[in-house]
User: Which sequence fits this backbone?
């Protein structure tokens, strides 16, 4: 399989490492080679957490600038910041619910308007899937299920040869029992949202 | 059962690089593991810590890397297979032991894992620890992939026992923190019964003994030179008159690049996995018939210089390049595109231009620097010291831990830092010659690690400084590992002695000791004022548990706070504390209840007393 390169960007605490983990398990179950890398030194201190996942026949576990086939952003400004990882053929999926950096939150820096951010991303890349994933996570009765909502949307794009069924199984195997039902619900809502 | 203890040979498992290494050690029958935690090696130690609870493995978080290596040096000399884990700069701390341990050697296998951090994702420098192998006269192994890392650990134990010497395994962040599939192998039951036979004229490094041991070490290196030429960890791939020599994760980037450029048939690869000593025969064989050689290695030109010198020995004068303006940098880490570009540039292959987007019209996106957590005890102390100092000009040597984040505004409480333990010792030097009052910051784990000798120095030489020990009851930065001052019973562990920082400080003869509870702002400020006024060494111990750790221990949560109508928008809270639980909405400060830990520091700072706990 030709390599498919996915970059996930999130803010510490949003749960992107679990998304990466589920994708890795699902790839393994589907017989797809997978190499992943993550930078999470400051995850618990409000910094940016980035995962790179390379599916298919490649050996590298990191992704160079301008070489992501898919960018999955958990926070709109972080998605915008990661545009340097994209090219004109990149498919971008982003949550639209903002989590302003502390500096902007206390009025010492301006958080760009959401519309402007989405317009820029859309104009520069092949396809943009943008929706309020946090709202759907709440709908699934699982505010921490943002990561599963976005995973559902990612699978729906069909960019990665992992079926929804395999992904759901990987969620069952990798996430806590207490959250299983709401995680699957969140996944399904995200899957529908990206139709 | 811990997943890495699964006795299911042949099972495929998705693991973190650090877990692959831990599993390799288990398959090799490791019986003792020691460490001082440090990113990117921390999860490896964590895996040992967890597995030790349910297996025969002995594991300890040692006081520092030197102690960790000395403990492991002893267990290995008692015939026990041992592993010692640290981050790259930890080897500097352990270096004194390392250099002479190479003379003394080992009986049971000893593998020293150094996790290097090119690009310094979470480190103060990006030193290349292959040179430690060269300096000490020890073998260095470097894996390129996770499955190989697992196998290499097993090989490293065998090699160590064969040579009677410790073996250094060097990884980089992209091995430690990458995830991939490994296949489980057979687990070797560890030998946990050690023994010691007196042999002082081989084991006590006095000059007369060491002279002989140095000869023996060089003989062992000569044996290693044969092994490195034979091992399958140094291998040649592909054919063609152009050559790339590569180590570590860069090997993957080179393979991908040759494929992407469609030149796999034109370029041969010599992959070096056993990098000290470098394989003379394999390298010189590889050079034969080649037009030019590119050396792809992150960090320093370690292989490049060795290969050039080997080429000289056999009269080979083809171009051998690695580090250079159009090729590879000594700084940072490599990436697939950069390696592809360097290969194309050096050999003259056509390359597609990068598909970079024009991002010149992007708005400024506010930065997202890491911040001390909501309710962090350090934030309170930084604020209180500032308040206590008033007009007194202060300079802050700081240390390594979460509190280093105090460098950022609005706290701005870090002025000088080089390494673990340097806060108080550099404070000694500064205080002798500058006008500002010197107030140093150090955490509890770092205090035990290497802060104590600096404090002894300060007391003995009667320096004039205030040392603030930020005792949050855990090693927070690396993920809440225990240290000698930690309450192990709270972690559900028995059989440990908790060492009181206050008693240590008192025992060293410090005359001014102040213990503060940093969440009590006014009281703390008054106590700090007294400590700052003291001429000589004063020590302030700020005791309050790390809020993240308290949560992990399931300690009862405090009520979050809210801002009432009494707020007159002075913004002292936001401007002085910079707590991430606060935000500004409709031009008013507000508190996110989900983030607020109820430390109440902002409530005590507010001039209008407008911040109050949320009542049910």
Assistant:
């Amino acid at each position: 399989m030709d390599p498919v390169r996915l970059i996930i960007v999130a803010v510490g605490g949003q749960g992107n490492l679990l998304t990466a983990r589920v994708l890795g398990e699902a790839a393994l179950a589907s017989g797809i080679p997978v190499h992943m890398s993550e930078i999470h030194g400051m995850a618990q201190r409000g910094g940016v957490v980035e995962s790179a996942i390379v599916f298919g026949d490649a050996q590298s576990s990191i992704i160079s600038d301008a070489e992501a086939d898919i960018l999955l952003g958990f926070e709109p400004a972080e998605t915008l910041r990661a545009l340097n990882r994209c090219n004109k053929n990149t498919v971008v999926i982003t949550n639209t619910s903002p989590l302003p950096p502390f500096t902007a939150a206390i009025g010492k820096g301006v958080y760009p308007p959401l519309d402007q951010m989405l317009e820029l991303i859309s104009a520069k890349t092949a396809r943009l899937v943008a929706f309020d994933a946090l709202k759907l996570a709440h709908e699934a009765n699982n505010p921490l299920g943002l990561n599963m909502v976005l995973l559902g949307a990612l699978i729906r794009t069909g960019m990665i040869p992992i079926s929804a069924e395999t992904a759901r199984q990987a969620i069952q195997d990798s996430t806590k029992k207490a959250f299983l039902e709401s995680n699957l619900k969140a996944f399904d809502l995200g899957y529908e949202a990206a139709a | 059962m811990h997943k890495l203890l699964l006795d299911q040979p042949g099972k495929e498992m998705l693991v973190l690089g650090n877990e692959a290494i831990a599993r390799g050690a288990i398959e090799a029958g490791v019986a003792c593991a020691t460490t001082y935690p440090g990113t990117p090696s921390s999860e490896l130690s964590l895996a040992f810590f967890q597995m030790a609870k349910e297996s025969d493995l002995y594991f300890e978080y040692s006081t520092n890397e030197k102690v960790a290596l000395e403990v492991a040096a002893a267990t290995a000399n008692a015939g026990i297979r041992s592993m010692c884990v640290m981050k790259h700069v930890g080897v500097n701390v352990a270096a004194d032991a390392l250099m002479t341990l190479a003379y003394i050697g080992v009986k049971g296998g000893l593998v020293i894992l150094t996790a290097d951090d090119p690009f310094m994702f979470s480190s103060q420098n990006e030193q290349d620890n292959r040179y430690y192998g060269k300096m000490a006269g020890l073998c260095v192994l470097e894996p390129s992939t996770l499955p190989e890392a697992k196998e290499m650990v097993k090989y490293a134990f065998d090699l160590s026992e064969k040579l009677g010497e410790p073996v250094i395994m060097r990884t980089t962040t992209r091995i430690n923190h990458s995830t991939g599939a490994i296949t489980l192998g057979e687990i070797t039951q560890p030998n946990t019964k050690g023994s010691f036979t007196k042999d002082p004229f081989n084991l006590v490094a006095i000059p007369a003994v060491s002279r002989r041991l140095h000869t023996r070490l060089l003989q062992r290196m000569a044996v290693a030179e044969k092994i490195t030429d034979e091992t399958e960890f140094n291998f040649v791939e592909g054919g063609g008159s152009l050559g790339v020599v590569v180590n570590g994760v860069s090997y993957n980037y080179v393979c991908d690049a040759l494929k992407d450029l469609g030149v796999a048939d034109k370029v041969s690869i010599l992959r070096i996995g056993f990098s000290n000593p470098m394989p003379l025969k394999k390298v010189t064989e590889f050079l034969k018939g080649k037009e030019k050689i590119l050396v792809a290695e992150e960090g320093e030109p370690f292989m490049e210089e060795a290969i050039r010198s080997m080429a000289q020995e056999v009269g080979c004068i083809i171009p051998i390049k690695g580090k250079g303006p159009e090729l590879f940098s000594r700084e940072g880490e490599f990436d697939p595109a950069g390696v592809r570009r360097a290969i194309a540039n050096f050999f003259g292959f056509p390359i597609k231009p990068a598909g970079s987007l024009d991002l010149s019209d992007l708005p400024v996106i506010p930065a997202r620097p890491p911040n001390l957590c909501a309710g962090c005890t350090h934030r309170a102390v930084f604020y209180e010291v500032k308040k206590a100092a008033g007009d007194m000009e202060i300079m802050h040597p700081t240390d390594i831990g979460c509190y280093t984040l105090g460098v950022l505004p609005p706290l701005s409480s870090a002025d000088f830092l080089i390494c673990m333990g340097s806060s108080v010792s550099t404070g000694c030097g500064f205080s002798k010659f500058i006008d500002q009052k010197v107030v140093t910051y150090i955490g509890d784990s770092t205090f035990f690690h290497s802060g104590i000798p600096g404090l002894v120095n300060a007391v003995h030489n009667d320096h004039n400084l205030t040392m603030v020990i930020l005792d949050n009851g855990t090693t927070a930065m690396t993920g809440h590992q225990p240290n000698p001052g930690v309450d192990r019973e709270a972690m559900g562990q028995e059989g440990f002695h908790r060492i009181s920082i206050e008693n240590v400080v008192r025992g060293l003869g410090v005359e001014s000791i102040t213990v503060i509870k940093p969440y009590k702002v006014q009281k703390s400020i008054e106590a700090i004022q007294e400590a700052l006024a003291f001429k000589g060494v004063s020590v302030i111990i700020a005791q309050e548990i790390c809020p993240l750790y308290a949560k992990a221990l399931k300690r009862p949560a405090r009520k979050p706070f809210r801002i009432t109508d009494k707020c007159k928008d002075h913004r002292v809270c936001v401007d002085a504390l910079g707590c991430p639980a606060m935000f500004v909405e409709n031009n008013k400060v507000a508190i996110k209840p989900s983030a607020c830990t109820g430390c109440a520091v902002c409530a005590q700072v507010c001039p209008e007393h407008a911040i109050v706990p949320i009542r049910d």
